[in-house]
Amino acid sequence: MITELSAGFLPLTDSAILIAAKERGFAEAEGIALNLVRETSWANVRDKLAVGQFEISHALAPMPIAANLGLTPFDTRLIAPMALGLGGNAITVSTALLAKMQDESGFLGLDAEAAGRALADVVAAGRSGGDKLLQFGVVHPFSGHNFELRYWLSASGITPDSDIEIVILPPSLMADALASGQIDGYCVGEPWNSVGVARGAGHIITTKSSIWASSPEKVLAVREDWAGENAETLHALLRALYRSAEWCGQPENHSELAALLGSPAYLGQPAEFILPALDGSILGASPPGGGRDFFQPHARAATFPWQSHALWFYSQMVRSGYVGHSAAHAEIARQSYRPDIYRAVMTGIGVPVPSANSKVEGALKEMVAVGASSQFLYLGPDGFFDGAVFDPDRLDAYIASQTA
C-alpha cells in the first residue's frame, strides 16, 4: 500500500533530503509517494500547512515555534520531529559595499568576526556622514536568517533596525534585488548566494557556519494533529528521510545530488552553482572534502531536533521583541521540537541517537564523541563566533543578558 503525502519546499540546497528521498527511492521503499510542491515564499508554505494543503513541509527552523506561540495568522499547531541538516546560509553584500568594507578595514575572507568589524566601520562612517541606512534582506521574520543576521550584527556593535534596515524577500529574488540596487546585502540559503556572485552582483562575506558552527537551519514541519492521527506514516517518513540524509552526506554522491537538485522541477539552477555548498568548496581555500562543513545533511546528529536549538531561537524572538518571555512560552517553544518521536523511530532501525534532548550550545570547540543510544556519535564544533555560550538550563539569565 502506498500513502501519498504532499510536501512544500522552497528551491534551496537544504531541501536536498526531501528531494533525494523521492528521487532516489527512499520514500517509495517505505510505502510513501512524495508529491513535492515548489513554493516561492515561506509565507505560502506556512499558510498551506495551516489549511491542510500540505501534510508536511521543508520549513524554517523557527516556524513551528512561532506558530505555536500564536505569532502567525492561523491557529495551527506544528511540530518538528526531525531537522533537515546543519548550516547552509551565507551573507552576501554588493560589490560597492564590499569595496567600502575593504577601504575602511582591509577586510578579506569569510571570518564572521572580521566581516562584522569591517561592516561596523562602514556603518559608523555612514552614521557620521548622514548616509541612508544600509538595507539587508532576509527570507522571513521567523527564520534562522533573520535571527543569525541580527545576532551577528549585534555582536559586531551594529544595532539592527537602528543602524541597518532589515527587509523581507523570497530567497529566489535576493540576487536580483542586489543586482538592481534595491538592497545592499542579504542573508539567504544556497544556491542564492552563489547565484548573486555568478551574476557579478555581490560577494559572500561570511557564512552561517562561521557565525555559529553546526547550527540549525531547516526542519521537517508537520501539523501536530496529523502527526497524532498518522503515527505509522510519520515514522515511515522519518525512516525514509534519514536514509536520504545518509545518502546526501556521502561525498561520492555530491555531484549526482547537485545535478538532481539543479533540475527545472527543483532548484532550476546549474549544478556548478549548487555543488560548492555540498562539498564545502564554497568556503574557499579548503579543498573539497577538506573537513570544513558549509552544509551538513547527516553527520554529527544533523537530523536530530535538539530542544536547545528551539530554545535559542525562542531567546532571539524575545530579544527582537516578537514575544514576551515567560516560563509558559519557553515550554511551548521547547515542545515544538520532538526528539522523543525521532528517538523512538531511529532506535528502531539501529541509528545512534543522542541520549539528551538538549545540549549547551557553543561549548564544543572541536568534534567530540558523546553518549548515544548505540554505537558512537560525534558532535561539534558548535561555537558562536563571539565566544558566547547558550545553556538552555540558564535561559532566563541568557535572555536577561541580551535584552539588558
From TrEMBL:
Record keyword Cell membrane present: yes
Superkingdom of the organism of origin: Bacteria
SUPFAM superfamilies linked to this entry: Periplasmic binding protein-like II
Predominant location category: membrane
Pfam families xref list: NMT1_2 (PF13379)
Keyword Cell inner membrane among UniProt keywords: yes
Subcellular location: Endomembrane system
CDD domains (UniProt xref): PBP2_NrtA_CpmA_like (cd13553)
Keyword annotations of the record: Cell inner membrane, Cell membrane, Membrane, Transport
Protein known as: ABC transporter substrate-binding protein
